[in-house]
Inverse folding.
């Protein structure tokens, strides 16, 4: 299979969040109060962050995610277009959904981060939008949070047209096994492992699934490149 695609659009499909990030000198003890050194509120999520980065480096990013149509979420979609030039396709039309708001604590001493997510929301809508058109996509990035059989069929069709499908694998999820059927390139954290398997076994499994290229990272370091 050739990995050359002449098109110039990139689709980023997955989770979007609002992140409240606190820079701390040290993590607080239980039942105490502290002041953060810095505080930032910004948009986040693997797919959203990747779309922003892509448009900073070039242009042509499309973000496919869950937003909803309440007033605050409409503003989020408008901000992504006006501030970052990102086209947004929403998986959900209802106005009850709200993007997850996450608290992120970063230690100045170690550089580690701790993330507190809100409770998981049981979304009834299957992640699919009839207006989604992947014909002009040269690359599609999946973060593992959003997947369905309908999407799987669309990804297969896109690959047949020469589109490259990339997995940003932070951790193994219930749908990961099915996602790998559609993936050309997997860029995964060292924490990305099949249940009851180590990293080498996980890599072997992905290669047998048909993944062409695999990179395993540990923070900013690339540990394995195949």
């Amino acid at each position: 299979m050739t990995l050359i695609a002449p098109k110039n659009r990139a689709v980023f499909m997955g989770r979007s969040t609002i992140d409240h990030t606190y820079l701390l000198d040290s993590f607080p003890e239980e039942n105490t109060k502290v002041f953060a050194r810095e505080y930032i509120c910004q948009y986040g999520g693997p797919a959203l962050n990747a779309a922003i980065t892509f448009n900073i480096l070039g242009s042509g990013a499309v973000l496919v995610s869950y937003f909803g149509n309440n007033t605050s979420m409409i503003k989020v979609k408008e901000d992504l277009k006006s501030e970052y030039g990102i086209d947004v396709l929403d998986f959900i039309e209802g106005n009850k959904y709200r993007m997850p708001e996450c608290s992120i604590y970063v230690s100045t001493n170690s550089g580690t981060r701790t993330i507190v997510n809100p409770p998981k929301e049981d979304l009834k809508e299957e992640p699919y939008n009839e207006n989604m058109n992947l014909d002009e996509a040269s690359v599609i990035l999946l973060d593992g949070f959003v997947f369905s059989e309908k999407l799987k069929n669309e990804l297969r069709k896109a690959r047949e047209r020469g589109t490259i499908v990339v997995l940003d694998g932070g951790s193994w999820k219930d749908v990961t096994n099915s996602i790998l059927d559609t993936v050309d390139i997997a860029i995964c954290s060292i924490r990305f492992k099949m249940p009851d398997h180590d990293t080498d076994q996980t890599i072997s499994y992905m290669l047998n699934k048909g993944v062409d290229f695999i990179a395993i990272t540990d923070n900013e370091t690339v540990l394995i490149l195949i």
Remarks:
- The chain has a mean pLDDT of 88.
- The radius of gyration is 18 Å.
